[in-house]
Structure formats: structure tokens, C-alpha cells
């Protein structure tokens, strides 16, 4: 359910109106209403594989064809998805509040497609439409080809997320290869154990350092807030005076986004695509 109490509605919308320095952290739950699967919980499996174990360098080195087919499936899903009402409400907020910076853990590009100005959003886990070479400096951006390589093509009646269809056995030579050195390409995303792109971290830190570093409001949207360093931005914002508003489907838990809420913070439980259009309008 997405019942918003009249008191929370009033205190939140009043604080939002007076806020100028606003930070946000977005997670997979923001895109859930667009049909993009999340990482944890019921939607966190692809075929028989836990998405969290596929998003690792060791999975890729052990079985690049498997990990590539997982990412090709998710590229296809992202390309065919539509931004939902939460993406749109947040993009509108960004247009109205020039000092709003959204940190997105999502790689699906849906915020940008909803019209969120590029200068107001900082992806920190990469993009599913960017690939890079595993050997040389080659990087490609905005590659929307689908399937990415002919070997990923599937008949219309085959759903690659359904384990009843056998996965393709793809030769290494038929996976995406570097045009410069012909080594294997990989998705230009951040896997566990890998550093976030330095430019992304710098951008967030620079934003935080401006205007004496004070932050009025921190929006935490659809993230389990368990993955660092991204989740740490919530703690930084709080330390700089921000009141925190969490928008999440799940019951409050000891760990995660609702773990350190205090008086003056908000927890709105429900679908971000229902809550945000109500609360940000
Ligand atoms: C809804 C909803 C609806 C659903 N409406 N809500 C400190 C302590 C312990 C460990 C570490 C630490 N610091 C670093 C680490 C290690 C590790 C880490 O954090 N591990 C933890 C799991 C403990 N971190 C790293 O390895 C990071 N790198 C690093 O630290 O490098 C250091 C280094 C420095 C120098 C040299 C070398 C290394 C990298 C982390 C990379 C994470 N990558 C992934 C994959 C990205 C590519 C891809 O998408 O495939 O990022 S994993 C995955 O998790 C993905 C997500 O962005 C990220 C967060 O997940 P998210 O978005 O929160 O999704 P879910 O599914 O978890 O949650 C969805 C939420 O939405 C739920 O709460 C639902 O209830 C809710 N929801 N529907 C509203 N409709
Ligand atoms: Zn190369």
C-alpha cells in the first residue's frame, strides 16, 4: 500500500519547498515499475543465477558468455522499457531545483530518458550502453545495438530469462570484441571489488564541497542501501545536516535504507512510481 499520512505529507512537502541543496540516491527499485528486475529479493534471479553473483569480475572471467548473455538480456529489457512516473517526477524536480544532484546506481539510462538533465545526475555504477576493452583503453558509449553481436540473436519465442530454454553455447570469438586489439569487451559497469569511476566520485565530492557543504534534504529511492561506497553518501548527507526521506516498498529493516532514520526523517513505504508523483508535485 502507499498510504501517505497527512502529517508526513505536510512536513515533507513543506521541507522540500524550502530546500535548495538536495541530494538523492537511486537504486533498482526506481526502475521496478518499468519492469526492470532488481538485484535482491524475489526479482533478483536470472534463470537459476543470483544476479549479485553474476555482477562480479570472477563470474566474467570464469564464464564470459554467461555474463554477457545476462547483460545482453538486461540491455534488451532497458531498451524496451519506458521511464515510469517516478523517473519523470524526479526529472521535473531536477529542472525546478538547480542544486539537486541525483546519484544513480542504475545503469539503465531511464532517468536520462525521462528528461533528467545530465548535469543533475551522476551515474556511479556505469552504463549498460557502454562497453570497454579488457586489455586496452578502448571504450565505447551509447551503443544501443540490440542484440549487441549476432551471436546473441534469439528466435522471438525464446525468453532468455526463462531457464526452460537452454542458454546458447557461444564461442569466445563470437562475443563482443575490441575493434582496436580484438580482445574481449566487457560491459562498462562497476562490479563488486572494483572501484567506482574516479570522475563520478569526484563529481559527487565536488558537489558536496560547494555552498559550504550543507545539505537540506537526502532522497533515498528504491535502494537496499547495502552496497558501498554508494550507500555511504546517505551517511555523509546526514552528517551535513540533511533530513532523509526514504521511498521503498519493503518493511523497515535493521540494515539498509531505514536503518538510521531519526526524528525529522521520513519513511514512505510503497511503490516509488506512486509515491513520488504525489510527494514531489
Ligand atoms: C522498490 C520498488 C518500488 C523494489 N518502489 N522501492 C564496506 C563494508 C563492507 C563491504 C564493502 C564496504 N565498502 C565496499 C565494500 C565491498 C562492496 C560492498 O558494498 N559489498 C556489500 C554488499 C557489503 N562494494 C564494492 O565492491 C564496490 N567497490 C569498492 O568498494 O571498491 C573499492 C576499491 C577501491 C580501489 C580499488 C579497488 C576497489 C563496488 C560495488 C559495485 C556494485 N555493482 C552492482 C552491479 C552494477 C552493474 C549492474 O547493474 O549489473 O551495482 S551490484 C548491484 O547492487 C548494482 C546496484 O547498483 C547495487 C545496489 O543495488 P540496489 O540498487 O540497491 O538494488 P537492490 O535490488 O539491492 O534493492 C532494490 C530496493 O528497491 C529494495 O530495497 C526494494 O525493497 C526496493 N524496491 N521495488 C520502491 N517499486
Ligand atoms: Zn582493446
UniProtKB/TrEMBL annotation:
Keyword line: Metal-binding, Mitochondrion, NAD, Transferase, Zinc
Gene3D superfamilies assigned to the protein according to its UniProt record, in alphabetical order: SIR2/SIRT2 'Small Domain (3.30.1600.10), TPP-binding domain (3.40.50.1220)
Domain (Deacetylase sirtuin-type): residue spans on this chain: 1-281
Binding of Zn(2+), residues: 133, 136, 178, 181
InterPro entries: DHS-like_NAD/FAD-binding_dom (IPR029035), NAD-dep_sirtuin_deacylases (IPR050134), Sirtuin (IPR003000), Sirtuin_cat_small_dom_sf (IPR026591), Sirtuin_class_III (IPR027546), Ssirtuin_cat_dom (IPR026590)
UniProt-annotated catalytic positions: 125 (proton acceptor)
Broad class of the protein's primary localization: mitochondrion
Location relative to the cell: Mitochondrion
Annotated GO MF terms: histone deacetylase activity, NAD-dependent; metal ion binding; NAD+ binding; protein-malonyllysine demalonylase activity; protein-succinyllysine desuccinylase activity
GO cellular component: mitochondrion; nucleus
Ranges of compositional bias, category Polar residues: 1-7
PROSITE patterns: SIRTUIN
Protein name as catalogued: SIR2 family histone deacetylase
